[in-house]
């Protein structure tokens, strides 16, 4: 075989499921020609935890505790989505003040999630000084969340029918000071990300996802908006306090060359959404109504209302990564008859294929990271594929879990 043919001969490069370039487990298999990616295959399902199975053996109030742990970054997203589904089934009307507090915390979570992603993106580009800056800035939002909820992660703030904690007059100056801090740094962050020549060369016109592909592959969130799709649950199906606010989907502005649907546009969308979240929180503080924060503060009464509930509903919210949905069906018992989570990343995974095909292998880490994947909240069940295509059943999963518990206890 000639030297020229050797250079262009196709070969396979596996990356994962554990790899320094991946922040969570996922298995990629790339068909390569030289340094160019020709084919893409990936296999999630490496991080099974069985939260839905556990939840269907608990009452809705107990399940809220689990929903906070579906994702360490989007705790309020999942607890709010689940709570909204149960509230619809049980006919529970959330107090207006609680809706505003939910919105404030929802947007703080968006800020810290986008800043976390910005740090990860900088790290994947080899710009570690920017990675440290982004995560240092993120600490302020984490401190504010801790002040409001008592926790930096797994907030435990959402309850069926409202929120567990109020926002006091003493806390408002801290929130306003935090927002001013972010407002001052936003221009600096935008300059560092959008005007750096290295970032522009690594991200502009790389990881391209056309508007047509984004629509056909059902992309959501910043991934879809960076490709020009005007979609946002807060805009299209307002919930909590969003119906009272002026919320519009953020698209890459024409003056910055968008929307093109590349990695650079996905950076733009997330940075602009941080500024939008600051504005939404300020609006909520100005309009924060007085009143109760819980539909029913007594847990026995709340549990009785949930137990009598019958029907099905979907709770949907706009997570930092896009639309998150929880399907719940109640049949008059303590525990739900069915509970199914559709995390945001699930809808964006197929976007990797057109994004990665034709790209250099060295650009794979930042392109993969550009959808802000969260595999832990996407993976719901383990499927073992071989020639017999064996699927682990619920009964088998229960047996294996019990055996593992016995081994650990010994």
What topology does this entry show?
Blueprint: H1 3-8, E1 10-15, E2 27-33, E3 36-43, H2 51-55, H3 60-67, H4 75-90, H5 96-124, H6 128-149, E4 158-159, E5 162-163, H7 172-194, H8 197-203, H9 211-216, H10 221-225, H11 233-236, H12 263-287, H13 299-308, E6 310-319, E7 322-331, E8 338-342, H14 344-348, H15 352-356, H16 364-369, H17 375-378, H18 394-409
Antiparallel strand pairs: 1-2, 2-3, 4-5, 6-7, 7-8
Summarize the helix and strand pattern as letters. HEEEHHHHHEEHHHHHHHEEEHHHHH
Shape: globular
Oligomer designation: single chain
CATH superfamily: Cytochrome-c3 Hydrogenase, chain B
Specify the biggest β-sheet: 3 strands, antiparallel
- What order do the strands of the largest sheet run in, or round the barrel if closed? 1-2-3
Number of domains: 1
CATH class: Mainly Alpha
Q: β content, as a range? A: 5-15%
Share of helical residues: 40-55%
Radius of gyration, taken over Cα atoms and rounded to an integer in Å: 22 Å
Report the uncertain regions: 1-9, 381-385
Q: Count helical runs.
A: 18
Q: How far apart are the termini?
A: 59 Å
CATH architecture heading: Orthogonal Bundle
């Amino acid at each position: 075989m000639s030297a020229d043919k050797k250079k262009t001969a196709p070969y396979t490069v596996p990356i994962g499921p554990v790899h320094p370039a991946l922040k969570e487990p996922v298995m990629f298999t790339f068909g390569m020609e030289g340094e160019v990616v020709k084919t893409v295959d990936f296999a999630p399902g490496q991080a099974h935890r069985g939260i839905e199975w556990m939840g269907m053996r608990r009452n809705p109030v107990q399940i809220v505790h689990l929903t906070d742990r579906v994702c360490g970054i989007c705790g309020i997203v999942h607890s709010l989505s689940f709570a909204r589904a149960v509230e619809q089934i049980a006919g529970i009307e959330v107090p207006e003040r609680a809706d505003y507090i939910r919105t404030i915390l929802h947007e703080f979570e968006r800020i810290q999630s986008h800043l976390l992603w910005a740090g990860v993106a900088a790290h994947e580009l080899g710009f570690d000084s920017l990675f440290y800056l982004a995560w240092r800035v993120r600490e302020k939002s984490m401190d504010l969340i801790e002040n409001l909820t008592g926790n930096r992660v797994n907030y435990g703030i959402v309850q069926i029918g409202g929120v567990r904690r109020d926002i006091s007059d003493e806390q408002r100056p801290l929130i306003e000071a935090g927002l001013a801090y972010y407002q001052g740094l936003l221009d600096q962050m935008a300059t560092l990300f959008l005007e750096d020549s290295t970032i522009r060369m690594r991200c502009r016109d790389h990881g391209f996802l056309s508007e047509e592909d984004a629509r056909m592959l059902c992309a959501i969130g910043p991934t879809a908006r960076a490709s020009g799709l005007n979609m946002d649950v807060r805009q299209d199906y307002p919930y909590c306090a969003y119906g009272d606010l002026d919320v519009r989907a953020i698209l890459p502005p024409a003056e910055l060359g968008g929307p093109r649907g590349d990695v650079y546009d996905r950076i733009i969308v997330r940075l602009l959404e941080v500024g939008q979240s600051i504005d939404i929180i300020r609006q909520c503080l100005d309009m924060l109504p007085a009143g109760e924060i819980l539909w029913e503060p007594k847990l026995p009464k709340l549990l009785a209302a949930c137990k009598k509930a019958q029907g099905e509903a979907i709770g949907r919210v706009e997570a930092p990564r896009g639309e998150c949905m929880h399907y719940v069906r109640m049949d008059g018992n303590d525990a739900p008859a069915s509970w199914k989570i559709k995390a945001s990343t699930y809808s964006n995974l197929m976007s990797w294929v057109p994004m990665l095909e034709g790209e250099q292998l060295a650009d794979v880490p930042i392109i993969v990271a550009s959808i802000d994947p969260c595999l832990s909240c996407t993976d719901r069940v383990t499927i073992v594929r071989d020639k017999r295509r064996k699927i682990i059943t619920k009964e088998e999963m229960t047996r294996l879990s019990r055996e593992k518990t016995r081994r650990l206890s010994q």
